[in-house]
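Bench notes, afternoon.
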Amino acid sequence: MNSNEIEIHKELKKYFGFSQFKGLQEQVITSILDRKNTFVIMPTGGGKSLCYQLPALIQEGTAIVVSPLIALMKNQVDAIRSLSSENGIAHVLNSSLTKTEIAQVKKDITSGLTKLLYVAPESLTKEEYVAFLQSVPISFVAIDEAHCISEWGHDFRPEYRNLRNIIKQLGKVPIIGLTATATPKVQEDILKNLDMIDANTFKASFNRPNLYYEVRTKTKNIESDIIRFIKQHKGKSGIIYCLSRKKVESIAEVLQVNGISAVPYHAGLDAKTRAKHQDMFLMEDVDVVVATIAFGMGIDKPDVRFVIHHDIPKSLESYYQETGRAGRDGGEGHCLAYYSYKDVEKLEKFMSGKPVAEQEIGFALLQEVVAYAETSMSRRKFLLHYFGEEFDSETGEGADMDDNVRNPKHKVEAKEEVVKLLEIVRDTKHIYKSKEIVFTLIGRINAVIKAHKTDTQPYFGSGSSHDEKYWMALLRQVLVTGLLSKDIETYGVIKITQEGLDFIKKPVSFMMSEDHEYTEADDETIVSGGKSSGTADEVLTGMLRELRKKVAKKLGVPPFVVFQDPSIEDMALKYPITIQELYNIHGVGEGKAKKYGSEFVALISRYVEDNDIIRPDDLVVKSTGVNSANKLYIIQNIDRKLSLNDIASAKGLSMDALIKEMEQIVYSGTKLNIKYWIDDMLDDDQQEEIHDYFMESESDKIEDALKEFDGDYDIDELRLMRIKFISEVAN
């Protein structure tokens, strides 16, 4: 080591207590000490902040650190103050300070005590601050979270755009840009905007080998799946990301009801609650935080063991940032995302109100997320390729940590198809995005293709022997192998590379794997690792049906009055053995459980014992009674004999939805007296006729009743009569 190196190692030990630098830190620090413009791209947890903290502490003057988040600045200032006996060594300058505090900050800077000054970009635009900073020695300006400069980043902030002009006013000071995530496009944007094309650039690998990536189909039973996943990771810390505040609240509630310690976190909560919830998570008073993306910036919790995306994020950068909060200590980190194309369409709808340029960017970024979710190639290779990094999916570190690699999809030879695809990109002269390329292959016309007269070309439709999904999957894989490239500047136009041109001349084998099909699964299946585990025990179902018949006969009512079929099937899936557990069965409320439950749980209990059945206690997902407010309102106002139309409109429900709610109420065992409403619709004889029908009938299906009465009554009349019948006879 030369004397300079020995010096910075000494300072590292003195201030931070480390004897070794991590990764690229030493090279970055040397570049800063040489007063060179420096650009650092380092994934979360790679030790970015030390890169500017150490040189600031050992240089003359004050370093200005621009950061977008007040909470983050505060954490960092506290951390640096803990390294020194002087409180004034680091300060924050932002809108939260009083006049007296501002005077103190200025005094400490002028006297040369302050080494690091954290500012929000807005504060830097204030003329008084700029004038003051011009009068004191500045060592350098560090711009943290530099991707905020780029519209292509996942967190664009317009106020970042003007930083360059302000820094110029401070004289000739070196600039250090730092970001934890940046595609090649964003990097270029940052360098251009800060006018530091000449910067020394340091880029650490984005590979996090200890993270396991998995994408599952988002079914209606996603909550059960999440609960089961968390219970398999009992006592471990995790974060669940949702896109809306409402979803955050409801998922946190479902988890709490199911015995998982969880708290919500989103921008709608007041600052005190947010800070409290964050601390509870850091101090391990709770295991899980359910959050919008407002959470996690600067969360230095090293042992987050899983990150779940309830909703797919808007860009791969966000996804990388958020999953990157798992396993920072190098231990296990499971990244599980739920995907359904419906969610993507929802996000596209949100975007449609924005300016066109923003929409274009938003769509382009979202399509990358879709490609990531649907691809069947190594997810790690796909992600790293997006960040401009090569990865060998055979020998790379962490190569098998991914659901696609562990459960490989079928592969087929696609050499000739690749040639066909490359020729079309070449012959259409690089004007099209993926969609139009694929349409040209399968021979589908849209406005763009028509405008360019591509549909009149001899190659139009030359790939029609395969469908759109096939070509989309192939195009993605060819992109990752580098035979094609996507030009982000022009929102995703596809171009052929030199390697692609060589491939056309001399094709070699190309094994393609088929994309995943993420179809919406039906309600009753819970997808976990691709296997459906939602099948009821048929032997027990038979026994429960027999018992239901016996109970019904004794009471002189039809069997469906006791429990409906879905309830019986749910019992045979979840094996409830106490009245308490019976409350969690589909369509069974407290009233019904108490009235009919004892014989049923006794039977199930014997059956479980006789057959050594291991009960899936994690399958009993308790609902939060989210609709309970609605239910309460309906029950109370029917008691007051309010018109059903008024009840429906007060709660913003259609008549159909209100009747559905009422059906759930009576089928769970609560009485609803709607005679006052039915008396206005049907006379006593009509009511008696329908009542007798349900009494004699084998089933309570409305279709059967409609057939039986052959147009005498409409569907709403029959449904309301069924509610009255169940309420009187069963409850």
